[in-house]
Amino acid sequence: MEDTMSSYSFSHQFYQRWTCAPETVRAAITQELKDITTLLQPETVFESFEFNTHDLDAYVDELYNNYNAEQAIAKAIIEKQEQERAAAEKQQLEEAQKKEAEETARKAEAAQKEQEKNEELAANKTHNKKDNLTEQETVDDAVDYLKTEKVSTGAASGENNNSTDSQTISKQAATLSDKPIKNIPDNANTTINLVLEDSELDATDQTLIRELENQIDDYLSEQMMLMSENLKSWLRAEMTQHFREKNTSATTENAAKKNIH
């Protein structure tokens, strides 16, 4: 028997299956072999000997079932952990994309507001420039008209020097006020020349000039009032927007500090 055991060798498949078997199964088989070895000893009483495992096959099957169940549970736990990890990574990616989209939208909104502000400032500058040109054209038109009226009045003064009454003067002033507006001369020499010419005007021409001056005063007063209202409206809108953004920033900063603490 000893010669037979010494010449016996296990196959490669046996070693592979043995090493892959669960530890509990190998322990049960090893114990069974120990029991057989003990039974074969001369001093062992056969009638009173008992194996540690009553039914090895049934016990090994039970061990395999337990092992397979444990492996299934472990696999399920690993799969669940993988799913949770994948879900967490997906959520993080979605949150990062959402933050990026919000940041892009905020930048686009800020750029649009800046563009609207610049356009509003440009429109206000254009409007103010037009108002200034309007005032300049009024005075220039008045000067041209006075020169024309001076020539026509001087030519007709020999026939009827006092034929123009107050009604005619008012009509002439109204006609002048309806004329298209041109450039205002800012040349000091023009003003001096006009003063010199005024000293030579008669009462009718001076009355006409005063009517025209009143028309200019009324027009300029109205334009300055409109300009003032526009500037105040613009100032109020700009300051309201500034304080709103400042308060929003302060509120966000305070909320962030509370969350940190």
What's the short version?
Residues 88-138, 151-182 are annotated as: Disordered. The protein has helices spanning 2-7, 12-20, 23-39, 56-160, 166-177, 188-198, 203-260.
Record the SSE blueprint:
Elements lengths: L1 H6 L4 H9 L2 H17 L16 H105 L5 H12 L10 H11 L4 H58 L1
Helix pairs in contact: 3-4, 4-7, 5-7
Task: Work out the count of structural domains.
Answer: 1
Give a count of the beta strands, DSSP E runs of length 2 or more.
Answer: 0
Number of helices: 7
Helical content band: over 70%
Write down the Rg: 55 Å
Assembly status: single chain
Helix/strand order: HHHHHHH
Low-confidence stretches: 1-6, 153-166, 179-192
Overall mean pLDDT stands at 75
Structural class: mainly alpha
